[in-house]
Amino acid sequence: MRRFSFSNIIYTLLLTGLLAILFIPGGKVWFMQQLMKVGLLQPSVPKTNEDAWPAPEMLFRDAAGAPVALSSLKGKVVFINFWATWCPPCRAEMPSVDRLYRQWKNNPGIVFLIVDADSEPDKAAAFMRDHGYQLPVALLTANVPQNVYNGTLPTTLIIDKAGRIVFRETGAADYSSHRMEEYIQQLLAEKQ
């Protein structure tokens, strides 16, 4: 009997990898990021905005503690990402969200709200700092309707200049894709 056959070695490596993904939080993050690198986990960017619906009023606090009402951002494109530091899919997509933010952060027509679902601003800020992300952390200060955010992490919304939700994605996605860049350019170019 051959204990070190090629198939036994491959089986052992696959089993070890699966166990690492299941039981090591960083393993899940790494695996999901690899799926993103090969083109999987792409956000489903809509071809049209005909399925858009009016965004309800949402109230946030920015990192400095200043209140931010969604209605005050009308006329801008708003990218909202609900996440948590302990959430592997959130951690997996965070580098792509950060790349998207860095690309658009100087554009006055778009606002990013990276909403810590746990409402722990110090912990969220430390996470961003420790990973070298520049993302602006925000906190939700009022309830949001279930059809907008039902607690599933991560959940990402994009709201157009007219105040309509034109994009909603749950689960990890690669937001640094070329399709997402084109979609944001399209939204920024639209007249209100």
Summarize this, please?
The chain is an alpha+beta fold and 192 residues long. The chain has helices at residues 6-23, 25-37, 88-104, 121-131, 178-189, and strands spanning 53-54, 59-61, 67-69, 77-83, 110-116, 137-140, 155-159, 164-170. It has five helices and eight strands.
Give a structural overview.
- There is one protein chain.
- The protein has 192 residues and is α+β, with helices and mostly antiparallel strands.
- 37% of the residues lie in helices and 20% in strands.
- The chain has helices spanning 6-23, 25-37, 88-104, 121-131, 178-189; strands at 53-54, 59-61, 67-69, 77-83, 110-116, 137-140, 155-159, 164-170.
- A hairpin with a 5-residue loop joins strand 2 and strand 3.
- Helix 1 packs across helix 2 (25-37) and helix 2 (25-37) crosses helix 3 (88-104).
- It is globular.
- It starts with 5 loop residues before the first helix and ends with a helix.
- The model has no long low-confidence stretch (mean pLDDT 89).
